[in-house]
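Hi L.,

You mentioned the student needs an example of a multi-chain input paired with its predicted structure. This one should do, with 582 residues in total across all chains.
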Amino acid sequence: MFNQLGVIGCGLMGGSFALALKKAGLVKRVVGYSKSPSTTEQAKRLGVIDTAAESALLAVSGSDIVLLAMPVAATEATLKAIRHLIDPKVLLMDVGSTKADVVDAARRVLGKQLGVFVPAHPIAGKESAGVQHAEATLYHGRQVILTPLPETDATQLQKATDVWSALGCQVLKMTPQNHDAAFAAVSHLPHLLAFAYFSAVANQPSGRDFLTLAGPGFRDFTRIAASDPTVWRDILLANKAEVMAQSKRFRDVLDLLEQVMQSDDAQALETLLRQASEGRAQWQMGVARPR
Amino acid sequence: MFNQLGVIGCGLMGGSFALALKKAGLVKRVVGYSKSPSTTEQAKRLGVIDTAAESALLAVSGSDIVLLAMPVAATEATLKAIRHLIDPKVLLMDVGSTKADVVDAARRVLGKQLGVFVPAHPIAGKESAGVQHAEATLYHGRQVILTPLPETDATQLQKATDVWSALGCQVLKMTPQNHDAAFAAVSHLPHLLAFAYFSAVANQPSGRDFLTLAGPGFRDFTRIAASDPTVWRDILLANKAEVMAQSKRFRDVLDLLEQVMQSDDAQALETLLRQASEGRAQWQMGVARPR
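Structure written out for the whole complex:
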């Protein structure tokens, strides 16, 4: 049980964490800060936070649990702004989709206080950004990846594990590097491809007409293209090398498929498609518990 | 009201059409044929068809409405097999995702009987192929594209419009060429990309581990990669030129995105992502009626 949650970045992720903690009875009050005052105000109006703070530092003041939930490129500046009030007993976490860059920023800024920081990435979200889409159940039944450092305090790591477990998450631990390699493959590249594909369709001469004909396959394939552009700008830049490596693998397979199409090799094409189809049909999303 | 529906290809699409027609009270009995006798048998066992025919020709015998619902490359051979029993009063339709190739096949085979054929493409489906996934509501609330020819009989065209409308579809008419250009963009290319992407992730050294970490974004982005490989083999080959042209557009945008990533141009990246994000957020799937 915590006394006060300080949320820095009152958007979909931070707002949902605040709602979930309240719903689980794990926190008495929530103080929130967002770069845009209107967002903080909206979060308060919606009951996502109890008190609007005028700075990140003020959101940390008096909090025994702090969540960083702004775009990842703002991590270093935010940590600098709050480090003076970070107590050794505070549990400090983030929810960033990249981990190596966040950990590097924490190393540079936190010094002796590095132990309180437990880097976290909950595998949850939706295409509708913003605190108005926050919901208490966003994390329920999802995986959360913690990427603790050698310096991470064992007590804080246990606290972090307990909090996410209490929200209905399955907690996994990985190194920041392994995390970033894996999520370049299963999350960052598909976002890049979805953004690229939607733009390519929409920005052609008949694009507007074509879009009126698109069906459920298109709807699901492009859902993530509606994701928050500032969040994804930061993720794609922070994990650029891994994303590029995954893009290269993707392009190689696309080249191969187009080669067999060009040569009208129906059998080879079917074999390649069947491999993907059977693999995807067998795949199941990792979940914390049956729903 | 029809006396007998002959379904050639008792899979997801043909089976769902049979169920929908029965549920709407538009047909007295359904005779079905599939290339694989076990599929026909299963369709009968599931109550999707009333009678299993031993050939395509026998499925047409006595039918006043006939639906071709096998992979598109089989159209010409199927039409050759059934043309002797095609009566001028029969409504003959297909459900293929490509239209120029199907129309060409019909022109070559049907001769004077071409007028009975109304090429149709219902914008519906799901990733689970097979008659066991057929459902009476698959077409409800969806668009269906008819691509009539100058030779198409006006009575048959009206009948086709009435049937799909009765199933809850919005009926649109286009030329086969415009249809294929549009669906290369909004359907065929995303399927190709989803197949390529899933294979690229799965077939790398850590692919199996990565897949256990994938979340809801991955799930939706790759749903269509589980589609039927024989159906998509035929579609991609039949509409190869248009799909390649769309792939080129997609690759150009992907190249651009990667260039701005490589040059760490955060502002340009955000602008490109925002354009896609806002466009996708505003897009709504065309539906026949609010649901």
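You could point out the following to them. Chain A has a mean pLDDT of 95. Chain A touches chain B through 92 residues (CB under 8 Å).

Best wishes,
N.
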